């Protein structure tokens, strides 16, 4: 069973590599720029994506009444003694404060990219404008993910604060 | 936004917009790459006769995405009913003009210097040969200029 799964993984990986390589070989410079923006900003958004996903999981636990402050202590690197007597919504606020610097850095870099990509078009035409636009479109995909997760988290925290 | 359903709707709309934009961008880059690979064929936009210099000036437009090298030009003169001039041909006058993508260039066809001025009904066939970067072959475009007649 284990061996079969390993072989299946190997096959999947080989297929992925094959199609990835053929895509890479036939890609236009604009598509490569898109992939660059997508994966670069996905890497940059990593702490935010996992942070908001963990926070959303924690909020479901809060709603169910099974929340453990240990999770927040671990995620925010805060002494457990500080958190033990706090309500679930307050713990969520702690976690959100932990994510705020990442959020500002991410949105700041995205805005910088937006400015750099739009400035030549506003000023009237540079050669590499098209490639930079590709990087911008690629970066927009993880940005939508981050923004959506953030909105949903805020809404859930607000809903919990109203019921608590 | 303090409403979970609203947040989801906003996120979905944003995701659709970004997907639309990114897809359109990639599609545009694909079709541009396909268009760039199509060798262009020049188009003669207009031909005008300059009697004082004994020249016919062709405006040659490159509609494609590849540069063209205009190699040489030839002129074939066919007299009309009113002309006393004899038919003649001037072949392979070197031109060596690079016509960038999407640009228009003027090609001057010099008529025979000792010939008399064109009369109505005279036909000047100007041929410009060209090459493009994707092929070593030589192509030609011929424009028929009938003097005294409205050009097409």
Structure, described:
The complex is a heterodimer of chains A (164) and B (152). Chain A is an all-alpha fold. Chain A has six helices and no strands. Helices cover 22% and strands 44% of the residues of chain B. Chain B has one helix and seven strands. Chain B has one helix at residues 4-36; strands at 43-50, 55-61, 68-78, 88-99, 104-110, 123-132, 135-146. Chain B has a four-stranded antiparallel beta sheet, with no helix packed on it. The model of chain B has no long low-confidence stretch (mean pLDDT 87). At the A-B interface, α2 and α6 of A face α1 of B.
Mean pLDDT of chain B: 87
On the 0 to 100 scale, the average pLDDT of chain A is 89
Overall shape of chain B: it is elongated
- Main pleated sheet of chain A: none
Measured as a percent range, the helix fraction of chain A is over 70%
Order of helices and strands of chain A: HHHHHH
Give the CA-CA distance, first to last residue of chain B.
64 Å
State the low-pLDDT regions of chain A, or none. none
Question: What's the story with the biggest beta sheet of chain B?
Answer: 4 strands, antiparallel
State Rg of chain B: 25 Å
Count helical runs of chain B: 1
> Helix coverage percent of residues of chain B?
10-25%
């Amino acid at each position: 069973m284990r061996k079969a799964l390993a072989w299946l993984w190997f096959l999947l990986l080989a297929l992925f590599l094959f199609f990835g390589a053929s895509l890479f070989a036939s890609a236009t410079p604009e598509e490569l720029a898109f992939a660059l923006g997508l994966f670069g900003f996905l890497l940059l958004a990593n702490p935010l994506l996992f942070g908001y996903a963990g926070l959303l999981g924690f909020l479901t636990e809060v709603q169910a009444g099974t929340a453990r402050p240990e999770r927040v202590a671990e995620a925010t690197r805060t002494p457990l003694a500080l958190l033990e007597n706090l309500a679930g919504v307050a713990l969520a606020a702690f976690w959100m404060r932990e994510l705020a610097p990442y959020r500002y850095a991410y949105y700041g870099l995205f805005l910088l990219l937006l400015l750099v990509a739009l400035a030549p078009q506003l000023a009237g035409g540079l050669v590499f404008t098209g490639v930079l636009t590709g990087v911008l479109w690629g970066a927009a995909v993880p940005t939508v993910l981050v923004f959506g997760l953030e909105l949903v988290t805020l809404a859930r925290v607000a809903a919990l604060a109203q019921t608590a | 936004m303090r409403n979970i359903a609203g947040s989801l709707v906003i996120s979905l709309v944003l995701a659709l917009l970004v997907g639309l934009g990114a897809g359109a961008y990639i599609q545009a880059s694909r079709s541009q790459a396909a268009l760039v690979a199509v060798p262009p064929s020049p188009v003669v936009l207009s031909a005008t006769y300059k009697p004082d210099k004994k020249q016919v000036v062709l405006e040659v437009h490159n509609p494609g995405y590849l540069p063209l090298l205009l190699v040489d030009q030839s002129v074939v003169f066919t007299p009309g009913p009113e002309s006393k001039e004899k038919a003649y041909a001037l072949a392979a006058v070197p031109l060596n003009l690079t016509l960038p993508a999407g640009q228009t260039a003027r090609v001057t066809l010099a008529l025979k210097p000792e010939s008399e001025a064109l009369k109505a009904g005279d036909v000047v066939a100007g041929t410009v040969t060209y090459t493009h970067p994707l092929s070593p072959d030589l192509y030609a475009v011929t424009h028929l200029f009938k003097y005294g007649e409205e050009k097409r």
